[in-house]
Write a structure and sequence with these properties.
Number of helices: 6
Number of strands: 5
Strand content: 15-25%
Strand order of the largest sheet: 2-1-3
Shape: flat
Order of helices and strands: EEHHEEEHHHH
Length: about 170
């Protein structure tokens, strides 16, 4: 981890262009991560190879991604970018708009209640405010949940097969 001056240096915003745009300032599929490690774990090596992923920290510093010797995604360098804070603000505003749109759809079913600001379509206007509104995704430690669920399903399937076999 590089020297940091604020907590914004640790927050990572990724923009997956899906190959539709080579302009880093244009929001694509934007995601936000609490740490560099979480962000790097969320990037597929092929996306880096095809230059589909743009990355900044929330302070506006460009993160240049590459592949390590074992093929893992790494941060090759951090670059100052004069337009970095503006790009980050644009990406986060796009993600916040997607978030409020999704919440509005769910609110139609009565599963969530929109705030007054959400109902008015008013989103935060600062990087910090947008991060607070969007929040961070939670990921299970070392992704033990998915293999554990798969193991449980496999055991249940084996038991069902054994019971069916016995019944025949």
């Amino acid at each position: 981890m590089a020297v940091r001056s604020t907590w914004l240096d640790e927050v990572v915003i990724l923009n997956d262009s899906d190959g539709t745009s080579i302009e880093e300032s244009m929001p694509g599929d934007v995601s936000i991560y609490r740490s560099e490690g979480d962000a790097l774990n969320g990037v597929e090596p092929w996306a880096v190879e095809h230059s589909q992923i743009f990355a900044f920290n929330a302070a506006g510093k460009r993160l240049v991604l590459g592949l390590g010797s074992a093929g893992q995604v790494i941060i090759v360098r951090r670059e100052d970018c004069p337009d970095g804070p503006e790009i980050v603000l644009k990406w986060l505003t796009s993600l916040a708009q997607n978030t409020v749109d999704a919440r509005a759809r769910v609110a139609q079913n009565g599963r969530v209640v929109l705030s007054g600001y959400e109902e008015d379509g008013a989103l935060p206007t600062t990087i910090e405010g947008l991060i607070a509104y969007i929040g961070f995704p939670w990921t299970s430690p070392r992704n033990w949940l998915a293999p554990g669920c798969l193991l449980l399903l496999a055991v249940n399937a084996a038991l069902c097969i054994a019971l069916l076999w016995k019944m025949l």
